[in-house]
Design a protein that fits this description.
The protein is of the alpha+beta class and about 160 residues long. The chain has helices at about 15-25, 30-40, 95-110, 125-130, and strands spanning about 5, 45-50, 55-65, 75-85, 115-120, 135-140, 140-150. It has one domain (about 5-150): Gcn5-related N-acetyltransferase (GNAT) (Aminopeptidase, 3-Layer(aba) Sandwich), CATH 3.40.630.30.
Length: about 160
Amino acid sequence: MSFNVRPLTVADFGQARPMLIDMGFVDDQTALEIRFSEFCTRSDWGLLGAFEAATLLGYAALQDYGPHLRSGNSHRTAKLHDLYTDPQARRRGVGRVLMRAAEAWARAHGLRYLFWYANLREATPAYLGMGYTAGEEVQESYRYFEIDFGEANTRIPAPEATVDG
């Protein structure tokens, strides 16, 4: 199945709203609409939607954390905050298409890492099914995932720091 993935716009809020609410932790629905419209235009946020015709089937929300204090842009990181597929569209490849789009967004922004946490019930098995590898640790019923976009020969452990007294 082929889906059209594109950045979400303010006009998509009507379709995105029930998905955002279903994800949970919505403090105020009026504030949610205002934040959504603001985040659609922020360069440090990627709000991506997967559409079939004009119907939104799912979305991904990721944030570029910007330059790192110590390493500048060489270790810039993004966090995938949300990956949601409408229950009626699950198991059709929507999540996989959105993850590929999230990876492309991260690469286009010059990021080194993309990370996220996934609950153990539904999300972790879905990510594993897409071919991602979880970290061994489990924290409060969540698994940690990370993609390193760096070249294999640049993945060198940090040098041991010394503190001059």
